Amino acid sequence: MTEQPRLAEENAAVLLPEPFVRWFAAKGWSPRAHQLDLLAKARAGQSVLLIAPTGAGKTLAGFLPSLTELANRPKRKPGQAHRGIHTLYISPLKALAVDIERNLGKPVEEIGLPLTIETRTGDTPSHKRQRQKLAPPDILLTTPEQLALLIASNDAKRFFEDLRYVVLDELHSLVISKRGHLLALGLARLRAFVPDLQTIGLSATVAEPDELRRWLVEQNQPEGSKSPDMAGLITVVGGAKPDISILDSQERVPWSGHSARYAIPEIYEAIRKHRTTLLFVNTRSQAELLFQELWRANEDSLPIALHHGSLDVGQRRRVEKAMADNALRAIVATSTLDLGIDWGDVDLVVHVGAPKGASRLAQRIGRANHRMDEPSKAILIPANRFEVLECRAALDANYLGAQDTPPLIKGALDVLSQHVLGVACGGPFDADLLFEEVRRAAPYAGLDRETFDRVIDFVATGGYALRNYERYARIRRNKDGLWRISHPSVAQQYRLNVGTIVEMPELNVRYVRQGRGMAGRGGPVLGKIEEYFAETLRPGDNFLFAGKVLRFEGIRENECVVSNGAGANIIVPSYAGGKFPLSTYLAEQVRGMLADSDRWKLLPEQVADWLRIQEDKSVLPKRGELLVETFPRGNRHYMVAYPFEGRLAHQTLGMLLTRRLERAHARPLGFVATDYSLAVWALDDMAALFKARKPSLGQLFDEDMLGDDLEDWLNESWMLKRTFRTCAVIAGLIEKRFPGQEKSGRQVTVSADLIYDVLRSHEPDHILLQATRTDASAGLLDVSRLGEMLSRVRGRIMHKHLDQISPLAVPVMLEIGKESVNGGANDTLLMEAADLVEEAMGRS
Amino acid sequence: MNFSLSRATLVAEADLVGIAGERAVCDRRGVLYFPDLRLLAVSDLHLEKGSSFARRGALIPPYDTGATLLQLQSVITDYQPRIVVSLGDSFHDGGGAERMHQSFREQLEAMMAARDWFWVAGNHDPDAPADLPGDTVKELAIGSLVFRHEPSKIRIEGEISGHLHPCARIVQRGRSVRRRCFAADGGRMIMPAFGAYTGSLNVLDRAYAGLFRLETLVAYMLGAERIFAISGSMLRPG
Q1: What is the least distance, in Å, from the CA of A223 to any CA of chain B?
Q2: What tens digit of pLDDT does each residue of A452-511 get?
Q3: Size of interface A-B (CB pairs under 8 A)
Q4: Distance separating alpha carbons of residues A124 and A137, to the nearest angstrom
Q5: Which pLDDT belongs to residue B5?
Q6: CATH of the domain at B190
Q7: Structural domain harbouring A420
């Protein structure tokens, strides 16, 4: 910052109470300008958004208004009633709350402040929660789910009546999910209790700071209100530019795949040359693979550890502790380590695979160095040739300071349903007032009354056209016009199901001694694995998990039983989650790079060469164009398109194109999608069809595919069923499945899939199906992005017919057969199995 | 035999399954039809399961009874059976028949008219359904067949039962397919649950231990357009 030190000192003297000034002096530090700036704004009654890179003293800045205020507060006299919470701190991670308690406790003790700091998370024992209710701490560190629970209790108003500040950490990551919606509604509720409440948001750099500034304060304020509809903004510019390079490998960069196995010796060398290396990958499968490969190369037995969300909590905590103690030389991690937890002395970040987004890359590299004035060092390892282009684009963006965090989406209706029930659990409510309150939360600022009333109806009786459930209503409107829960058991049920994180069904991985088979008992739990993966395993199969080769023994209730494995054919678990699609911004950059041969100089020679040969044998699309190649191969006909819109949008496009080609009698057989391109293959010559305009390529890619074709396909899609399950759990229609609960599919539960089928055929406009479609369009299907692409390339599709496969098509063609095409076809598999039997029995 | 054309095409000779000497069609919609007896068996309708959940605070859509009856209507129209046996757990709980919407009750009564209808008592509905026609029985013996709700521990040849909601799972080309199924070994059969909200339990679960002769066990899995007969050795647990 450019501020003169003298000025800062004077400001400090004015703003900081004397013990703070002494503490800074004793440490040999002076308060940073943004810390004082934030304090001044908060003193003036403003809510504030602080955008700063890691290592800028963000946490202390966020708490300074609270700490200085609490320092001057008169002591509670004996016999006086307990005061309520003064400051609420909310973070997305439990671990982060625990971390802050430690980091904040130190200065508080050294300055000698008479205040209490406590955490409240899912792990907090119930006696401590009880005690916190009776004697609240001054500062409570917690998570969005715990806030929802506190609000739903009948003493919430008293508990929060003295609340002054809410500090929201890692706000950029909180606001993009449904947890953010729940939190925004919680904040609106807190403001109803305490109108002059102030918020302080701490965030990494984002593309649209104004969205976050609105999020922090009341929207739709009553007329004549003088308070601004945006929080104040303080931006701390990053210190030294990071030192990022792309690995210029001596080895051949592969055409496709995500393992980056070719670069292992070079990665290992880098680890040896640094103190502590943090290796980021995009998926848990990649983490397992990389970890395995590194240990194979680890001749010096360097302490290299593995960290991802499926591993047992105990094991993760041990790795985190070893990390903080600087006992590790390298750690392979997925996004579980993305957030701002203070780790040890990392001096190198290696990003294996393309980062998929420029902001994500910046945040991950920020991990490397917590002293903001020194440059962070990072190496990008592209796993294939397209990723080389993507890494280059991300690197350029990082130097330009470009941001591509996703725009905020409208508040979800399933979350609103949960909140409405929560409010009712806290006490009777008036629908008109609650509607106004909800609209003050930024994600719900545009909510209309009709939708809100449908949500209330849903919470009360399920909101069905067949009004069968009046007598089972969960909330009822009484004569006084207020809504109340109809029975205390409703509140109990609510408490068990609060939150917006719905996991895929998972099984514990239980280790038993080899040779004991399913009879073995009592070994340790290594972590969790998604049920659908475990179901594809056969006893005796070997797979990679928690950095070990395990032998699958079988499934016992909610456990996947394993023993020590070995052998050559090792399966790597595939996980549904954890794959980020390529950001719109990076996609645009990659398209630009393809079109501009001057920029190829920056690429490794083998990659530039690949593009030159493509230009020679086929063509490279100009900026704004969509290239579609067709060529025969074997006895099939292929069509490869290069939209660069990310895997999710491409999958949706592939589903829709194959439907259309089927109608055009091209007899399509399948498709495969990557982040960059899409290949469809068929028995008939698609190029001939396009030539005869039956249909033309323009008609095939017409935006109208997003109408009926999308609707038809959606209704049968497994993706919609999965999304429905999430919405139904969040909205409180079906209960969460808890770990340890025995799996007994028969009478006890009704599966979400069955409910979906019945509801869809009887009431397709039901509010929960509406919420499901909205979610799927934005999430798993990425329909909006596909729509933008189709409209952008209208009239600008370049068709190139070739005699053989082009260089650019090789990567996606290599994916064929590796990834199964999801969808229909299950009966074909049954038919195969039945035929096998008939064959064996000699019946046909 | 005097089958109409549509019924004749439904009963192709090759699709017949033998149970203790009687021959039956396993229909892909989850019912069992004995052409020689003109008898249709259906199991575990679990009518009013939705409202049973709603009573306890889970307001799942109230359309399950309608969906189940519609499907039942379609098989009855196709086969025109003389006798219908509902193998127990016809209602999800004892109060189910009373809670049923009047329109559904009328629909059910119309289906029951002009044919013999047996309600086999189940563990969810041990008593006769309130105010509905039909005979409530503990079990029913017709020819060499015995219809009961729960499969008996001591093996009875020719027993047709329900209760366990069998499903089967195969893995083919790395993908797992799970479907409801009829489970049979030539001597006894356990029928799939028919209700719209009924879940299922793998035939390899320990709840089925000792019920089947494993060497002749076949799972007749329900496909979208036909039944798939899968031998026991191909099946996977879970």
Answers
A1: 39
A2: 999 999 999 999 998 889 999 999 999 999 999 999 999 998 988 888 877 666 778 888
A3: 139
A4: 14
A5: 39
A6: 3.60.21
A7: 413-497
